[in-house]
Amino acid sequence: MQKHCQECGTKLIAKELENEGQIPFCSHCEQFRFPSFNTAVSLIVVNQSNHKVLLIQQYGRPRKILVAGYVSKGESLEETALRELKEETCLTGLSISFNKSQFFEPSNTLMCNFTVFVKDDGGFQANHEIDAYDWYSPEEARQNNFPHSLAASFLNYYLDRKNW
Asked: Where's the Nudix hydrolase domain (predicted)?
């Protein structure tokens, strides 16, 4: 539960709201303050020309993961996905489809996973956020993705449902 009102800073109390249960309430603003969280996208980037999947490494960490980024105020999830793809790789998405979402407790983030197809890897330019990258066959991507991670969960979910 949030501890303080995001508007005035008053300590919140739990108060019953009909059909909702105990909700944080600001006695100063006299408003319920529903819990807030971050929203981000995660991308399974597929090269349409060879059906390889992009995995990246970031911030000096050795683990291979999916491209991801936070949703900016006013953006749709799809807009965020295409923007993050362009920012991090200079690639343009040809098509985008939603896979699934999952709440990620460590960062208080709702992660929304998409598959984005790109024409090929021509024009790929990693930005400052990417330390290393490679394109993998679907099975290689499954084996090289950071094990027991949300990225692995999303990738495995996608691969288990596709006929490669």
From this structure: 36-158
Residue type, 114: F
Taking only the tens place, the pLDDT of each residue in 33-49 is: 987 889 999 999 999 99
3 and 79, same domain (yes or no): no
The C-alpha atoms of residue 71 and residue 87 are separated, in whole angstroms, by 13
Domain that holds residue 10: 1-36
Exposure on the CB side of residue 65, measured as CA atoms within 13 A: 20
- Express each pLDDT in 46-59 by its tens digit: 999 999 999 999 99
- Together in a domain, 96 and 46: yes
Residues 139 and 73 grouped into a single domain = yes
Name the 3-class secondary structure at 83. helix
Dihedral angle of Cα 156, 54, 129, 152, to the nearest 10 degrees: 10
- 24 and 64 in a common domain: no
Asked if 43 and 55 count as a contact pair (C-beta separation under 8 A), the reply is no
